[in-house]
Design a protein that fits this description.
The protein is an all-alpha fold. Helix content is about 75%, strand content about 0%. The chain is globular, with a radius of gyration of 18 Å. Keywords: Membrane, Transmembrane, Transmembrane helix.
């Protein structure tokens, strides 16, 4: 899986660092950014948190990228608007799942989206079988096989599944956006559209807390950890790394999320949940390790 949309200008010194190390640092950064987002949710809620993340990330990219707006065709704007819708909905659903589920559980369930898309796009029997194993893993990590359904947080699970579906949509639209917009122009415009659309709802739900010093500080940390740092590191790494290798490394995201949940949020998983996570990771390595193009913000 290749990530169009995770990229930004980087220092020359990064080009001398092992690309595998750069991607690993990027993955850890994204998941610790997610853990930090979980601490922002009680302050300004889901919509406020996503508004702050998109707004600060957009401001950063607009400053650095300065995308070209003139001379765009109507079809260009239609594609980037759909891209923004997928990205915004993905973040809203994922942050909603973080309110109810441990981050390691939410990320693992979310991963079903791009994994399923990659498997069915390849049409290989082994890949489809791997998705079946991943589904078993999701059932284990969500505790659907061990806990009565009345005690499960079905809303949280559904939100994580919705985030995964939006992630799959994001993958499909990222390629179309990349074909129409140079460099990071499409991502900068996408983030800006999402932030502008969400801003009234963010103000409505969070009020003046949206620009409190604590919210802005945490929001800036999320924008850096979840966007600026991984954008820069992965752009440099992907110039020297095969797509299949990147896919294998990306498959470690659920484990990184569990680590971030443990260290930042003091969230721990049961033994069967860890087995479920391992099944998803192995399935992801089998499917995403094949050369292909894709991924996400």
């Amino acid at each position: 899986m290749v990530t169009p949309g995770r990229g930004a200008p980087s220092a020359r010194g990064l080009a001398r660092v092992d690309p595998v190390l750069l991607v690993l640092v990027s993955i850890v950064s994204v998941q610790f950014g997610g853990a930090l987002a979980a601490t922002l949710l009680p302050l300004i809620g889901v919509v406020g948190s996503v508004t702050l993340r998109l707004g600060l990330s957009a401001a950063l990219l607009l400053l650095v990228v300065r995308p070209r707006l003139r001379g765009r065709e109507r079809a260009d704007w239609a594609v980037v608007a759909a891209f923004a819708a997928a990205l915004t909905c993905m973040n809203l659903a994922f942050y909603a799942s973080l309110e109810r589920l441990p981050i390691g559980v939410a990320v693992t369930i979310e991963f079903i989206g791009p994994l399923t898309l990659a498997a069915f796009t390849s049409r290989r029997g082994r890949d489809i079988a791997a998705v079946g194993g991943a589904v078993v893993g999701v059932l284990l990590i969500s505790e659907a096989l061990t806990v009565p359904w009345a005690e499960l947080d079905l809303v949280g699970i559904l939100m994580a599944l919705l985030a995964g579906a939006c992630w799959a949509g994001y993958i499909l639209l990222s390629g179309r956006t990349g074909a129409r917009f140079e460099g990071l122009d499409g991502m900068a415009i996408c983030l800006t559209i999402g932030a502008v659309v969400l801003l009234p709802f963010g103000i409505w739900t969070a009020g003046t807390d949206l620009w409190s010093s604590e919210a802005l500080l945490r929001g800036a940390g999320i924008a850096l950890l979840s966007s600026a740092i991984p954008y820069s590191l992965e752009l440099v790494a992907l110039r020297r790394m095969a797509a299949g290798v990147f896919g294998v490394l990306l498959s470690l995201e659920p484990a990184a999320a569990a680590l971030a949940g443990l260290l930042v949020l003091e969230q721990s998983l049961e033994a069967l949940q860890l087995v479920g996570m391992a099944l998803v990771v192995v399935a992801s390595i089998l499917v995403l390790g094949r050369p292909r193009t894709q991924v996400r913000d």
